[in-house]
Amino acid sequence: MNTLDTWAAQVLAEFDLDPGLLDRTAVLDVARDVAHGVARPAAPLTTYLLGIAVGRGADPTEAAARISQLATEWAATQPADSAHPPAGHTADKSR
């Protein structure tokens, strides 16, 4: 078991959550898509919002796919946020 698995198991146990509820790959994919398509700080916020949506009854797979689609659309239509560049890029500090 790696660190991520151990951490997730501890949090699941702490809140008495069914381990079957966690689709780690889907959550990490959403975080990646949002970090790359919107801004890095948007990733944890968005995964939290995904959790709220699922907790309110949204289908986890459909919600994750929709958020990833939104991030892709955002990247194609919104100007870059130089204060929070996508992962792998650095902010232009000369401004």
UniProtKB/TrEMBL annotation:
The residues covered by the DUF6457 domain are: 2-78
Q: Which Pfam families match?
A: DUF6457
Q: Which domain of life is it from?
A: Bacteria
| Region spans: Disordered | 75-95
Protein name in UniProt: DUF6457 domain-containing protein
Please report the organism this UniProt entry assigns to the protein.
Goodfellowiella coeruleoviolacea
